[in-house]
Automatic annotation (TrEMBL), chain A:
PANTHER family: OLIGOPEPTIDE TRANSPORT SYSTEM PERMEASE PROTEIN. Residues 1-11 have a biased composition (Polar residues). SUPFAM superfamilies: MetI-like (SSF161098). PROSITE patterns: ABC_TM1 (PS50928). GO terms for cellular component: plasma membrane. The keyword Metal-binding does not apply. It comes from the Bacteria. It comes from Microlunatus soli. The lineage of its organism: Bacteria, Bacillati, Actinomycetota, Actinomycetes, Propionibacteriales. This is Peptide/nickel transport system permease protein.
TrEMBL record, chain B:
It comes from the Bacteria. This is Peptide/nickel transport system ATP-binding protein. PROSITE patterns: ABC_TRANSPORTER_1 (PS00211), ABC_TRANSPORTER_2 (PS50893). The keyword Transport applies. GO terms for biological process: peptide transport. The lineage of its organism: Bacteria, Bacillati, Actinomycetota, Actinomycetes, Propionibacteriales. InterPro entries: AAA+_ATPase, ABC_transporter-like_ATP-bd, ABC_transporter-like_CS, Oligopep_ABC_C, P-loop_NTPase. CDD domains: ABC_NikE_OppD_transporters. Keywords: ATP-binding, Nucleotide-binding, Transport. PANTHER family: MALTOSE ABC TRANSPORTER, ATP-BINDING PROTEIN, OLIGOPEPTIDE/DIPEPTIDE ABC TRANSPORTER, ATPASE SUBUNIT. One of its GO terms (molecular function) is ATP binding. Residues 11-262 form the ABC transporter domain.
TrEMBL record, chain C:
It comes from the Bacteria. GO terms for biological process: peptide transport. Keywords: ATP-binding, Nucleotide-binding, Transport. SMART domains: AAA. One of its GO terms (molecular function) is ATP binding. This is Peptide/nickel transport system ATP-binding protein. Residues 13-263 form the ABC transporter domain. InterPro entries: AAA+_ATPase, ABC_transporter-like_ATP-bd, Oligopep_ABC_C, P-loop_NTPase. Coiled coil: none annotated. It holds the Pfam family oligo_HPY. It comes from Microlunatus soli. SUPFAM superfamilies: P-loop containing nucleoside triphosphate hydrolases.
Automatic annotation (TrEMBL), chain E:
Pfam families: BPD_transp_1. Keywords: Membrane, Transmembrane, Transmembrane helix, Transport. Belongs to the binding-protein-dependent transport system permease family. It comes from the Bacteria. Residues 89-281 form the ABC transmembrane type-1 domain. It is found in: Cell membrane; Membrane. This is Peptide/nickel transport system permease protein. InterPro entries: MetI-like, MetI-like_sf.
């Protein structure tokens, strides 16, 4: 969880630095690309994407293998717990599952195996928590719920937070703005759980207005029927609300921090001199200049939906990715944990890539050469 | 009809200060100045003498820690009743702006919204102040651009695609979009090189010729004043030390400071000893 | 340190076909040429002022940075007494630095805002071995500050933001005075000063030439300053030096149309000599 | 200290319990009519489409499947000590314990209508015997089974490779569950490592109606065609096992509103409900089959801990009443024997020995013994054989977990008496690794080795099973005990029926030897009380009438369900 | 005499800075108070325990309601909640400090090397930090801490900083880039200053506020990261920080039991801590970002 304003950072990165032209045979390719700077940029950006992808997947893989405690041992222990006769699992059992879970050979062999399966077969291997279902299927089963809950509440929090933050920055010094800012400073990091629990206590148990558990009413068949959607909404309301409340505060703070420097810009004074209405200045001049870094920030934060929100999911018994992840970790289901991590990496990087490719089109200022 | 009706602006006893950690610093000290309708008035003075502060106060754009400490500014727009610029507020102030009083800022580099097309930055003022002319925007913008010597295609560009000189001219074009009574130009040519400077000065002269606007041109470059203005007001440490016809100022400076100002102009043909 | 230490041994900076290219968007090959085939030399005997004049973006600062060794050109070479300045040994480089010193354009950014202004002088004195102790150095500082007509008592011990632009720029001159380099590379040192201070500054510079045999490469876009300084002038446009010669000649009989345009665009400080013709760019 | 009393004991009003509070029924999120459904709240389920327990995490545990879909050959009711023949009618050994015969109940049939026969049993045993790569495969079945014969449909005879009077233990549901017979007609020809067995075909009174992954829920429906209706005809038409919120707050609130009928809310919240006067709560205590225990290393390389006297030092430093009253979530008794205080185990107790070797808290005795083996050095630290005495204690339980706390209390006492002791909580795998390799001095966890008779424990402590430190003990002699006396007794016992008169004196001698060496120190009996709601269903086991093991994750829960009666309470619409 | 004037001069700038921003001042005051309370934790223990350890297991009966002897009551293991909370706060603060220092130092070094050297060094380092930034830290941290139960406070801090230094590095690098071509840096170059000297004497002091912000956010990130882990019950064992108490409150259902101090007090303290560090961050940025200062010139 980071606190400061650094959502804007992706733009800072595209600094202008003097770079000397190279000499050598690649000059001709360069000159071709030079005539299509956007293509050249896209190509280079894509290259970087591949490098980052490889790097992140590799680091993630080795990080897991570096966890203290022998994973194989844990794995075997897990097998033993499933054992009817309380005996040590036989060597045959161990060998079989070592192979099946890609735990054969030294770490490097395992790494190659993992990468090969991942890249060429898009296969993460079987999950342990739901053997022999492939890990990617296990993840995919809970992903839609998490995306539905966290995704929607993230969007709501973002939109409201952006608006509130812009206003708080704009009306800096005014009572309302200062109150909301200070509230955000103070409450921005209250655990979701705390909020969620209070909401449950008040709305579900005391007032009985809303359901406290599950994602929908199990009496209603899953489908696009109005009653099902209504039940989804009812069940999702409290968990989403707890996420939205805190999310708004965090976006408010970062938006406000971005907003304040913009308020000192000459073009805002100029807009004021033009006699424009404050609302117009706020939306067309101030917000327009800061929303892109927030879009980038949002894109990145969406990637972290893969983490799920374990506590809220557990409290509301929501069938999301967070609880799957925790189960996987407690059972040391490597394939599933790595799968979640890998998916998060791929999605964050891809979102970043797409945004970076789109940004030059959205923001005239972005200089897409390096 | 009194003589004052000729004056589009009258500053009397204007006093502006900045609150600093060392107390209030007076930047404009009891300035009295009358601006005649249709003239080009130059404000000269060394850096820090308070030229910009005066302009900003007049435009009501003064930001904290700056504060108007006293005086009044009477403004007589063509089609409206005279007002004290220091007293108007809210909607009344907004309507005065641009349709009567517009501004050519000092930092032209950053005065255009970087994420809006040039055309939209024109449209803004028109939609705000002359909604009736909304439909004309497509014809109006190219015409205005042409006025300052720019091609119509510039309308579709973004500020960062333009040079400093072009931006400055765009700001000028936006200034005259609603044919205001008064334009305050703060250092319109500083930071531009000489060739561009000359073009800008030409365009400024054209503005008065074509629209009859009153121009207040702030510059520390005496050459600019010599080339462009009708009258010069000389500022020194926040005070207006001398106001006079441009010829008088150059040929027969009254105030000591004005004299030293004129003397110190290096110029071609005046070689060092 | 004696003033005549350089006498007899002529120092020479030579630019041979210097070319500086940068990555850029929108050009045919992806590069823009900021400096194109620039060749000229600066010599210390006799001391001269050589002005480099051109509009904004014409490559003036780039040349200055090249000479100061802050940016390695992409083509050509720059030599100091015959040795390429980008392949000097340690002692040679120290010697080069000792002899070639800058005055930069922006009097605000040249000081690190968190230190007192003395530090700039003290650092230089220490780096070039002018003074061992602070006391000895203080004496030097006072002498140099007086030479640029600053009151040491009002400057030493102050922070940069407590000084005016002109004062700061003169502190930089004092630094140069103290170091007595053979060459001063002055990149638009007066463009941000107002007229009176500007004149003072230029006078001091000329004084230095006279008294300490310093050769100055003076970069400006202001022709009147060039005229005031005299000496030689080079006119640069779009990275190319298009005209060079003694100031009087170039100013009175410009041979290149660009020089002509520049001359015409200088506003004459005389309301009776207003422009009558119009120009377009 | 003068506290203001506890949160949960606080009485309403002026010190007396409030009059019976009303039960406010909330809406349970189940797809079946509430009053026809028994709802059990359980832990997080992750598997919903696989019932093959021969692969890892194959069949979801505690989901209802083990309780009343699959049935066992026999059930041992630990609450009463009764052995209940179920799919079988009886078992019999030949005289020299080399053949074991099971007779199957001719009425038994699978829920797809096919009869259950001894062929199914033979099929299952053979499968597991031959496929060592299956979970449950290999092991004793491979070691002891020569072959399985089926003289007729209802009889199976296991020929043993060597005499074994305890081989039937593996076929009786004692703790949690027992031997799972697979229907041959379903499994034959399937790859047992891939087959999902979904929906499961078994013999029990319920069948799978649906497993709802997104609700983390299993819905079981009564099997109308159940073979043993005469003996067991449960009233709930449906049983729902669902994951509840892991948080005690949420779970307690759900219980209060009867969103589930059974499931572990925690004792503090139950206490709160009781003191509030909540009328529908039944609490049933049942002791865990595994008393908490300290495992002590006997390998001489480990230094002071290998001294038998040191074992007693540690035992004297355990304040069992304090642990039983304050550390375990509910009050539990101290343990004197290394087995649970079940009725079935009463026959193994020897009161005289228990009195002679009474496990008490006595720091003075501990200090006395310590002074004998490890006198204090100059710096106040105790020295053993010239070196500072150290004790390294480990537990797989998280910091603040009860076992960790038990260890920590003793560690603090050891430190107080001049021994540098450390207490560490290790993750399951790391702990297991250290434990099995003997790289510990004291391991604080539990002793689960006696499910039938003490010889099971003694056998695991035979000298020939003590591998050197650093080598995996493979769950055998983890304490590295080498005691010739115990070895001899264990060898003799292994060929005897433990209930036979010949065995009795041997068992007594072995227990005495055990106390002398004290390789595993029993601490407390532990229990997980069960909380039931009587709003919709009554007839739950109670402390006064503990007719069955009340735990909803044991196979025996089938009999609990069999006794339930509807109260007639209607669910609010 | 000389010393005292130089001290006042050295202190003058920070004091001026603090004075000029009420947010900064407020944040610092809260932080100092929290730190003092944390430092006093042994004293508080002694007072409450009256000789014995008030946070020992079963030191008192469990679940006692707040009273004179136990102002915040006792917890599920019979420990004094007040004493525990202060102890936990000092742990939280220390972890924040460790993580803050480690990640700031690592971030600063990487940022300076990358930003100042430029070229391929920068490319490699920036790509590497970029990669670390996209790896979802949450599963990694959970996995790491779940399998490394009893770890020291320092190790926890270190572990948390593995993923927070890239943030610091990123913020600082962009600042280095903007400072690198400042004329005063170039002047130092032509005054024969070495790279190291330039970095230390010219760049570093100017980056102090950004480093401060980096430190504060890393520290905060670490404290809250750990709370996040603790609260889902996967925190590293052996470290009782504020999150651990919240976790205990959650697992025991303290809120419905009525044991509100176990929830409210640690969350309140965390909230205060967050608010104070955030106020310092915001205050520093406002003070050092000239755009926010509203003063012309410079
Ligand atoms: N925000 C501020 N706070 C304090 N003093 C200020 C502020 N803005 C301007 N001043 C001071 O007010 C005086 C007048 O400044 P002003 O900007 O009006 O001068 P100017 O004549 O426009 O100079 P320039 O030619 O450099 O633009 C100066 O002494 C300046 O230092
Ligand atoms: N580091 C760099 N990277 C890319 N382009 C550069 C760099 N430095 C300078 N340029 C470009 O080179 C050209 C010449 O720049 P230079 O600074 O030398 O101009 P100048 O003549 O000093 O202008 P001014 O009068 O505005 O200072 C400009 O177009 C500039 O944008
Ligand atoms: Mg100004
Ligand atoms: Mg330049
Ligand atoms: Ni955060």
């Amino acid at each position: 969880m980071t606190v400061t304003t650094s959502t804007a950072s992706s733009q800072q990165d595209r600094d202008e630095r003097p770079t000397e032209p190279p000499s050598g045979p690649i000059v001709s390719i360069r000159s071709v690309l030079a005539r299509h700077p956007l293509a050249a940029y896209a190509l280079r950006r894509f290259g970087l994407y591949l490098i980052e992808l490889w790097g992140a997947l590799t680091i993630a893989f080795f990080f897991f293998r570096m966890i203290p405690g022998d994973p194989i041992q844990t794995f075997i222990q897990t097998l033993q717990q499933n054992y009817v006769y309380n005996q040590q699992a036989s060597a045959e059992v161990i060998a079989r599952y070592r192979k099946e879970f890609g735990l054969e050979g030294n770490v490097f062999t395992q790494y190659l195996h993992h990468m090969k399966k991942l890249i060429f077969e898009h296969d993460l291997g079987p999950s342990l928590i739901n053997y022999p279902t492939p890990a990617q299927d296990v993840i995919m089963q809970s992903l839609p719920w998490t995306i539905g809950l966290l995704g929607i509440s993230a969007v709501i929090a973002w939109v409201l937070g952006l608006a509130a933050g812009a206003l708080a920055g704009w009306r800096r010094g005014k009572l309302g703005a200062e109150i909301s800012t200070n509230l955000a400073i103070i409450l921005g990091h209250v655990p979701f759980y705390f909020v969620a629990l209070i909401l449950v206590y008040v709305f579900a148990y005391t007032l009985g207005l809303l359901p406290a558990r599950s994602a929908y009413d199990s009496n209603i068949p899953i489908g696009f029927s109005p009653s099902f959607l209504l039940s989804l909404l009812q069940h999702g309301f409290l968990p989403a609300l707890s996420i939205v409340i805190i999310g708004i505060f965090n976006w408010l703070l970062s938006t406000r921090m971005l907003m304040i420097p913009v308020l000192g810009e000459d073009y805002l004074t100029y807009a004021e001199a033009k006699g424009l209405k404050p609302g117009r200045i706020l939306s067309r001049y101030a917000l327009r200049n800061i929303y892109l870094p927030q879009v980038t920030g949002f894109g990145i934060s969406l990637g972290f939906i893969f983490n799920g929100n374990v506590l809220v999911e557990q409290l509301f018994n929501y069938p999301g990715l967070g609880s799957t992840l925790v189960t996987a970790i407690t059972q040391l289901d490597f394939n599933t944990i790595l799968g979640v991590t890998d998916m998060a990496i791929v999605s964050v990087l891809t979102v970043n890539l797409v945004l970076d490719l789109l940004l030059p089109l959205l923001d005239p200022r972005v200089k897409y050469w390096r | 009809m009194s003589e004052t009706d000729d004056n589009v602006l009258e500053l009397s006893g204007l006093e502006v200060g900045y609150a600093t950690s060392e107390g209030m610093v007076t930047a404009v000290d009891k300035a009295d100045l009358a601006v005649r309708r249709g003239e080009i008035l130059g404000i000269a003075g060394e850096s820090g003498s308070g030229k910009s502060t005066m302009a900003v106060a007049l435009l009501r754009l003064l930001k904290p820690p700056g504060r108007v400490l006293g005086g009044s500014i009477t403004f007589r727009p063509k089609d409206k009743a005279p007002v004290d610029l220091l007293k108007v507020q809210g909607q009344q102030l907004r309507t005065l702006r641009w349709s009567n009083l517009s501004y050519l800022p000092q930092g032209s580099m950053n005065s255009l919204n970087p994420v809006m097309r040039i055309k939209d930055q024109f449209a803004d003022v028109i939609i705000e102040h002359a909604p009736a002319r909304r439909s004309e925007i497509d014809q109006l913008v190219p015409r205005l651009l042409e006025q300052v010597g720019l091609e119509p295609r510039v309308a579709r560009m973004y500020p960062h695609e333009l040079s400093g000189g072009m931006k400055q001219r765009i700001l000028m074009a936006i200034c005259i979009a609603l044919e205001p009574d008064v334009i305050v130009a703060d250092e319109p040519t500083t930071a531009l090189d000489v060739t561009i400077q000359r073009v800008i000065l030409q365009s400024l002269a054209d503005l008065r010729r074509d629209f009859g606007v009153t121009l207040i041109v702030i510059s520390h470059d005496m050459g600019v004043h010599a080339q462009l203005v009708d009258r010069v007001a000389v500022m020194y440490e926040g005070k207006l030390v001398e106001v006079g016809d441009v010829r008088q100022i150059f040929k027969d400076p009254q105030h000591e400071y004005t004299r030293s100002l004129i003397d110190s102009i290096p110029s071609i043909g005046k070689e060092a000893s | 340190m004696t003033e005549t230490s350089r006498a007899g041994t002529e120092q020479r900076i030579e630019l041979e076909h210097v070319e500086q290219r940068f990555h850029a968007r929108g050009t045919a090959d992806g590069f823009m040429t900021a400096v194109d085939d620039a060749s000229f030399s600066l010599t210390s005997d006799p001391p001269r002022v050589v002005s480099l004049v051109g509009q904004s973006g014409s490559g003036k600062s780039t040349i200055a940075r090249n000479i100061l060794g802050l940016q390695k050109p992409t083509g050509g070479r720059i030599t100091f007494n015959g040795r390429d300045i980008f392949s000097l040994s340690r002692t040679e480089r120290d010697e080069y630095r000792r002899n070639v010193q800058p005055v930069f354009q922006d009097p605000y950014a040249i000081f690190n805002p968190i230190y007192r202004v003395d530090r700039v002088l003290w650092k230089a004195a220490k780096a070039f071995g002018l003074a061992k102790t602070r006391a000895a150095a203080d004496e030097l500082f006072e002498e140099s500050l007086s030479a640029v007509r600053l009151d040491p008592g009002r400057v030493l011990g102050r922070y940069p933001h407590q000084l005016s632009g002109g004062q700061r720029q003169r502190v930089m001159l004092a630094r140069v005075h103290m170091l007595r380099p053979a060459f001063i590379i002055a990149d638009e040192p007066v463009s941000m000063l107002d007229a009176q201070v500007r004149k003072l500054f230029l006078d001091i510079l000329l004084d230095f030439k006279q008294q300490y045999q310093m050769t100055t490469l003076f970069i400006t876009h202001d022709l009147s300053t060039v005229y005031y300084l005299g000496g030689d002038v080079m006119v640069i446009t779009k990275g190319e030096i298009v005209e060079r010669g003694p100031v009087a000649t170039v100013m009175h009989e410009p041979s290149h149309p660009y020089t002509q345009l520049l001359l015409d665009s200088v506003p004459r400080p005389d309301p009776d000599q207003r422009w009558t013709d119009r120009i377009t760019v | 200290t003068g506290g203001g009393g506890s949160y949960t004991d606080q009485k309403q009003g002026a010190g007396k319990p409030k009059q019976t509070a009303e039960v406010k029924i909330g809406k349970a999120n189940i797809p079946t009519p509430r009053e026809e459904t028994l709802v059990v709240a359980q832990a997080d389920f992750t598997v919903f489409n696989n019932w093959n327990s021969m692969v890892p995490n194959g069949a979801p545990g505690a989901s209802g499947f083990d309780m009343f879909v699959k049935e066992y050959m026999f059930y041992l009711n630990l609450a009463t000590g009764e052995l209940i023949p179920w799919l079988c009618t009886d078992y019999k050994y030949n005289d020299d314990y080399t053949a074991l015969t099971f007779n199957f109940n001719p009425a038994a049939k699978w829920n797809d209508g096919k009869p259950l026969t001894s062929e199914d049993f033979k099929f299952t045993v053979d499968l597991l015997r031959k496929r060592k790569d299956l979970l449950g495969g290999g092991g004793d079945l491979t070691e002891f089974v020569k072959k399985v014969e089926t003289p007729d449909e209802h009889t199976a005879v296991i020929d043993l490779t060597k005499p074994n009077p305890r081989f039937h233990y593996g076929f009786i549901a004692v703790i949690l569950s027992g031997f799972d017979i697979r229907p041959k007609h379903v499994w034959e020809g399937q790859d047992p490592t891939k087959f999902r067995d979904n929906p499961p075909v078994r013999t029990g009174p319920y069948t799978l109606k649906k497993a709802i992954q997104s609700q983390k829920m299993f819905v079981w429906e009564k099997n109308p065609d159940y073979w043993n209706k005469g003996k067991l005809d449960p009233k709930p038409k449906y049983v729902v096992y669902q994951s509840t919120a892991k948080q005690a707050d949420s779970a307690a609130l759900a219980f209060e509103q009867v969103q589930f009928d059974a499931g572990s809310i925690d004792e503090e919240h139950a206490k709160q409900l009781r003191s509030k006067g909540y009328p529908a709560l039944v609490t049933t205590k049942f002791n865990d089959p595994c008393p908490r225990a300290f495992w002590l290393n006997n390998a001489p390389e480990r230094g002071i801990i290998s001294e038998p006297k040191m074992h007693w030092v540690i035992s004297y430093l355990i304040d069992r009443p304090k642990i039983g009253n304050n550390v375990w979530p509910v009050k539990v008794p101290a343990a004197q024997y290394p087995w649970a205080n079940f009725k079935t185990n009463d026959k193994w107790s020897v009161p005289a020995l228990a009195e002679k070797y009474k496990l008490t808290y006595s720091p003075e005795d501990a200090v006395r013994l310590l002074d004998e083996i490890a006198p204090k050095g100059a710096n106040g630290k105790r020295m053993y054989k010239g070196k500072p005495a150290t004790i390294e204690m480990i537990t797989p339980v998280a910091v603040d977990g009860p076992e960790y706390v038990m260890g920590k209390l003793v560690k603090d006492e050891l430190v107080k008496h001049g021994i540098s002791a450390t207490m560490r909580s290790l993750s399951g795998s790391v702990h297991d690794e250290k434990f099995q390799r003997g790289e510990y001095d004291v391991a604080v966890n539990w002793v689960c080795d006696v499910s039938w008779d003490p010889e099971q424990l003694y056998r695991n402590m035979e000298s020939d099973r003590a591998v050197p430190i650093g080598k995996n003990a493979v769950d055998k002699n983890k304490t590295r005990l080498k005691d010739p006396v115990l070895d001899k007794l264990s060898k003799q016992l292994s060929n005897l029926d433990p209930t036979s008169p010949e065995a009795k004196p041997l068992l007594e001698q072995a227990l005495e030897q055990y106390y002398k060496r004290l390789p595993v120190i029993p601490i407390i009996q532990t229990g997980y009380p069960q909380y039931f709601n009587t709003t919709f269903w009554k007839g739950w086991p109670t402390d006064d009438n503990l007719y069955q093991v009340p735990l909803n994750w044991w196979g025996h829960f089938m009999f609990v369900i069999g006794k339930l009666e509807p109260t007639g309470q209607k669910a609010p619409s | 005499m000389a010393i005292s004037t130089s001290v006042t001069r050295v202190l003058a700038a920070p004091v001026r800075t603090v004075r000029s921003s009420p947010k900064l001042a407020g944040g610092l005051i809260i932080l100092v108070v929290l730190v003092i309370l944390a430092l006093l934790s042994p004293l508080i223990n002694a007072v409450i325990g009256g000789g014995s350890d008030p946070v020992a297991v079963a030191a008192y009966p469990k679940w006692q309601v707040p009273s004179g002897a136990h102002p915040l009551g006792t917890d599920q293991l019979g420990r004094d909640v007040l004493a525990m909370t202060f102890g936990a706060m000092s742990v939280s603060l220390r972890i924040g400090a460790v993580a803050g220092v480690v990640s700031t130092v690592a971030g600063v070094i990487v940022a300076f090397v990358a930003g100042y050297k430029g070229g391929w060094v920068d490319a490699v380092l920036s790509t590497f930090t970029g990669i670390l930034l996209v790896i979802p830290t949450f599963p990694l941290l959970i996995a790491f801490s779940a399998y490394a139960r009893e770890v020291t406070l320092f190790q926890v801090g270190l572990m948390l900083s593995i993923f927070s230094w890239p943030f610091a590095a990123k913020i600082i690098r962009s600042q280095v880039l903007s400072l690198r071509t400042r004329p005063y840096v170039e002047l130092a170059k032509v005054s024969k200053a070495r790279d190291m000297e330039i970095i230390v004497t010219e760049l570093l002091p100017n980056l102090a506020p950004f480093i401060g912000v980096g430190f504060a956010s890393s520290a905060l990130g670490a404290i809250f990261g750990l709370v996040g882990l603790e609260v889902i019950g996967l925190g590293p064992g052996g470290v009782i920080d504020l999150g651990h108490i919240i976790y205990a409150a959650i697992t025991t259902g303290a809120l419905t039991l009525g044991a509100w101090p176990m929830f409210v007090v640690p969350i309140g303290l965390l909230t205060l801590l967050f608010a104070s560090l955030n106020m310092i961050n915001i205050g520093l940025e406002e003070v050092y970002n000239p755009r926010l200062r509203g003063v012309t010139g410079e």
